[in-house]
Structures are given as C-alpha cells and as structure tokens.
Amino acid sequence: MQKVRKAVIPAAGFGTRFLPATKAMAKEMLPIVDKPTIQFIIEEAVESGIEDILIVTGKGKRAIEDHFDSNFELEENLKMKEKWDLLKLVQDTTKVRLHFVRQPYPKGLGDAVLHAKSFVGNEPFVVLLGDDMMKADVPLTKQLMNQHEKTGLSVLATMRVPHEETSKYGIIDPVTKIEEGLYEVDHFVEKPKPEDAPSDLAIIGRYLLNPEVFEILEKQEPGAGNEVQLTDAIETLNKTQKVLAHEFKGTRYDVGDKFGFMTTSIEYGLEHPEVKDNLKEYIIQLSRELREE
Length: 293
What we know:
alpha/beta; 13 strands; two-stranded antiparallel ribbon; 9-stranded mixed beta sheet
C-alpha cells in the first residue's frame, strides 16, 4: 500500500463573495483573528503527516507565496526588539515543504486538480479545499488517510446536513454501509432538491484520491457552469474502482461566505489567548443591549 505523502490545495478562485476586499487580496489570506485561512488548511495537512503540498494559484495570489516565504527584514527587526514569540510565529510559516503552480484560466475544480498531475505522479493524494476548516481530535485529512490505508480506495469526506439544505451540496447515495461511518457509494447527486436527495450525507472539502482520477480528468468534458467538475470525474472513477464515503463527526467551519467567516472568527477568537476574555465580555454586553431593545 502506497503511503499518502502529498496534498493539493486549489487556491485560484477570484473570491467574488468577499469583494471588494478580494479585489487586490487573495481570499485565502483573509485572517481568522490573526492567521490566514489557508494556514489552517496547511496545518491540518502537516498534522496529518503530509510531507509535500502543492498550492494551485492564479493571478493575484502572490501574497500566499510571500506569506510562507522567509522575510529577512522582518525577522531581523523582531530579533533586534527581542520579540521572540512573534519571531517564532513568523519563522514557523517557512517550515512547510510547499510547491506552487498556476492555473492560467478558471476552468473549474477538476481542472485545478489536473494541474497537480506531474506533482503527484502515480501516488494517492489528498485534496483540501480552503473554504472548509475542520476541527477534530484527529484531523479529518488523517481520518481519510487511515481509511485509505485499510482499503486502498479513494475516500471522500462527508457530513450529515439538515435535509432541507441538501440543495447546497453534492450528496452521496450510499449503497452499502461497510462499518460505522464508512460507506460504499452508488452515485453522487449534485445539489438535489430535498425531495430528491438520496441521503443527508454531503460531500465536504476533503478528498483522498487515487491517481487514476487524472486519466479521467484529462478526457473529461466541461460540465455544470462550463467547468471541469471534480465530482463528475469521481463519479466516473466510481464505475471502475469503488469510491468510499467517510462520515466526519467533528466541527466544520464554512469560511467561504461572509456569515460563515464571521462566525468562525468569533469562535476562534473565543479560544484565542490574547482576545478571548475581552471578546467574551463584549458578547455578553452586546446580548444584554439587544435584549433591552
């Protein structure tokens, strides 16, 4: 069984839901209190044992590369002022083995993943989407790696969602329950109406894929939105080798829209040692004022 060593993070999107902030700033660099969202994703991969990470970027994403590069002037300034804790924070961002490739045209998630073919080679790999931050005792990426180690099959992360919200997600039709929280998949349904949804298990932003998916992506015609859809390629892959669905039981934060981003910032802030006490007092005071209105 090949060890899963590599991960791919697609980060070439325009981030239109956060305009005008993302007009000149990469969406992935928007901070949750004091840490860019993409850093949370990378930390999950590293904590799971991933050794090399490819970030698929596009125009206007240079800040991502700069963030994970060394900054000599800043580091010397922090040394001079003996700000050792801040120096460690800055230097820690340079310890990850990152690689970058550009997606010249926004042709969809499947096309972004296809740009990782030469990087991945003939190995299984993980795709982590930056809009989904996951919280669990065992990182979700590691959970998928554990399932792949047992089965050798591609494994998608899923999570139960309210039935009335199935139209927001790709939903799996589970044909067989292998064990608690692990299913064989019959097929995938993209954003079904609640009355048509085969289950409440929604695909969330983590995929562990075998390399055969690249052969499919190379031949695949554009689908919804005239883009190359990764879900379509996984559907095709499922016809020749089983694709499994792993049910995630932790907490998922959706930072891909404004409300999700704000709630994530609040919850992370309530755990942050520098701001948690003041933030808690502010929320209590705000709640009192709202009740009095």
